[in-house]
Amino acid sequence: MSNFEESGSLDGAIAIIGMAGRFPGANNTDEFWENLYNGVESVKFFKHDELVKMGIDEHLLDNPKFVAADAILDGMDMFDAEFFDYSAREAEIMDPQHRLFLESAWEVLESAGYNSDLYDGRIAVYASANLSGYMIRNLYSNPGLVESLGSFKIMIANGQDFLATKVSYKMNLMGPSVNVNTLCSSSMVAVHYACQSLNNFECDIAMAGGVSFQVSRNEAFFYQEGGIGSADGHCRAFDSKANGTVSGSGLGVVALKRLEDAIADGDYIHAIIKGTGINNDGSSKNSYTAPNVDGQAECIAEAIEMSGVNPETITYIDGHGTGTNLGDPIEIAALTKAFRAYTDKKGFCAIGSAKTNIGHLVNAGGLASVIKTVLSMKHRVIPASLNFEEPNPKIDFVNSPFYVNSKLSKWETEGFPLRAGVSSFGIGGTNTHVILEQAPAAQPSEKSQRPYQLISLSAKTETALEKMTQNLVEHIKKNPDLNLADIAFTQHVGRRSFNHRRIAVCKNLEDLEVKISNSTSGNVISYFQKHKDRPIVFMFPGDAKYIKECGELYRTEERFRNTVDYCADLLLSILGTDIRTLLDSDMTANENRNVRSVAFVTQYSMAKLLQESGLKPESMIGEGTGEYVAACISEVLSLEDALRITASEDKNFSEILSEISLNVPQIPFVSSVSGQWIEDSMATSTDYWLKQRNSSFSAQGLQEILSDDERIFVEIGNGERFLSEAGNSLISVQIENTSPSEAFMECMGKIWVYGAKVDWNKFYEEEKRHRIPLPTYPFERQRYWIEPGARNENKKEQEFPVSDKSEIDEKVLAECIKGNISISVDLDESAKKKQIEAILLFKDKLEKLCLEFQGKIEVSPLLLKGSEKLSGSMDGSEKLSKRPRPDLDIPYVEPSSEVEKIIAEYWKKVLGFEKLGIHDDFFELGGHSLIAAAVAADLSKVFKIQIPMTKLLETTTIASVAEMVETYKGVMLGDGEAAAAEENMEEGTI
Fold first, then answer.
1. What is the pLDDT of residues 43-88, one digit of tens each?
2. Which of 287, 102, 841, 868 has the alpha carbon at shortest distance from 91?
3. The CATH number of the domain where 475 resides is what?
4. Residues classed as catalytic
5. 814 contact partners, CB below 8 Å, separation of at least 6
6. Whole domain around residue 822: which residue ranges?
7. How far is it, in rounded angstroms, from Cα 499 to Cα 497?
8. Does residue 453 sit in the same domain as residue 360?
9. Do 215 and 291 fall within a single domain?
10. Going by C-beta distance under 8 Å and a sequence separation of 6 or more, which residues neighbour residue 186?
């Protein structure tokens, strides 16, 4: 006991900064908690008529051991393919486990307030998926589909090895990307290694999770005594009537970070991981699949030692809790053994099992328990462990530290944080245990010095943007105590910038709610810009009309104030006046050099504020004093020299100019004298600046810089000098009739909303803000699903009469696979029910071999009516629907030439769209290099030409590919020309 501190140590602790999941009966963690709190058992019990409609034969339903229960997951056939830039065809063949895990990975990072494109650290992924039932049952039962797409492409879309790396690729994550597979303990093993990776500084944020879906959710299940499956579809963990668990589908993923970093970065912390343990039982147990007391106890003890906490302060355990007669007593014995090494106290630690609510989620089961426990900590409530009436007689709860928490209970402690343990044990003996602790008290967020905040929203489609806006309004209504500045910060640094953008400048939470509730009002700016970083032009009008309004900006923007202070101190000895006293005054009564100096300082300080807030001008233009500002920003003039010549009188301007250093411009700007881009020789000539002093502004220069309509024009001045000539493209900091602070925020918002790149990290560099959980991206999900193939009644048959399971040997299986033939199961009426279980065993054995033999067989649901056929090679016809052409920026132009039509047909086939225009971009449609390689190979054969892969990746439209085909038609694949063609081939040719 003396080795532990009641408070514990934070050394090596890991913060949980984001959580996401989809569980039976719950589409997210909020719904999951609601079900847990209300004691909902999210198991679906299928009625007789439902099962018959599903295709389950009534002879099976008559068997008393048939269990018609499953903890199902709705919507596993739905996915937002366009968001992740997948073609319709690729989405259809992808394992639903991969699809939904990818969506949840995106959600968990957003919920943590991070955007991987803006985050400087490395983000890792440790993830696990179950064997793809979708690949085996749905895809490989359609041989025509397999032949069309190829087994390699199907493997990439469905294989367990590609889950983590797929997330890293689609989200641009640079940390370790590792798949973890220990079956039932997989997701907890992922958490363990994610924590290790963080503490070893291999990454700075780690996502850890698991997913397991039963594609055939109406799968016939027969209870077997001593097995893991429950006889009645209820999991009764630790109860005397416990006889197994029920299968479930779901996923969970968490975002993790080193605790000290999470605190320093203002992250929202759900809970902390104090320690983890992992080991394997080895061979000291009854069988490979059996659990082991010593192995589990050592794993738990390891986690406790690592956590450094007193086990007497651990007051809840969410156990593995499968509700089996063998596993439950071993689990409690192992926990008791581990705790007894530290304490003799009895009955102080509640225990429960998430499996009583949602069934066994296999690869995702451990993390579901972690999320349940963290939610319990946050609400300080322990949900009831369901279906418990009296303890299993093999469990000695009375003399243990544990009791089953069979009803909803408050979670309270005496002077120490809430702490819990979570266990997860895998078939094969890999054990894991995690010690959790409630999050430390968060320091209040700093009060922002900015009186206005810029709220930004961005989505890939207009409808998603509207839904996103609506979700934020609802969230504000439910959470009226949110900090507006933290909302703005999280939306900026924690969300990606897409084509559809929206901004609102707000002074408080009520203002935000009112404005975005009516997104079509003039208070909200919405804009669609094809995704690109548009160049920014700084424009300096040079007058001082708006100077008297800059006092507010001086008081509210620290970086603006710092620059003004620096300039004012330098000018004090030159002017004899502190220009700071002039910021709130009318400049009309001042000397010209004071007017020029204040105009220069305010415009220069504003330009530096924009630069330091994350904007980089591509070019500039200035009039009068404004050109001095442009020259200073471009480093032609040093700030000190620019201040001297600005403050000089005309009589000594030449003398001062001769004393300063002139440099080659680093940022191009338009000369106000010539109306052309400044040349190095002009910028470094004193004659030029002497001429510029008294010359009038050349309107030609404005037309020169306005010639590129991709530019965003930012007038740093009164909003009138260039506004009328620049038109709607101009973004101006307008000072009149509004607050300068509001104008600055609106300027930043417009620059971003019209498509320029803003470094939001720089924008908040001077502030200490908090990331807070906000609504994540509203995916627009559609159904992508390939149904299992129907049986081919006309195919070759060869009967193998089967009277009992002993006759179903490897020879029969081999013949079935080798010949792609049927197996006849010949049973008379009286033997049917007796043989059902034997046939199901045979069915399972066949299905396990499907993957090994590339899916040449698939076992359909049994329909036992005398002599029936068990198997079903497909007729080879593809049942792949095509989607409407996506909403692209490019107008549809129908293919006209024969070559264009042929190419279009190939594209439609591999991408899954009904029609495609000749200017549609292959990669914008969801194509990638692997698909391109397949298309190139096909087109090479069709047109009898050699298409270099490097060229194909450069020509991304049907029109350009058609043109390339015409170019390469001279390189033939005929017998006499093949050798010559090979010699002329470029590297990378398909």
1. 988 888 887 776 676 777 777 778 888 899 999 999 999 999 999 8
2. 102
3. 3.30.70.3290
4. 184, 320, 360
5. none
6. 805-870
7. 7
8. no
9. yes
10. 128, 180, 210, 362, 363, 364, 366, 426
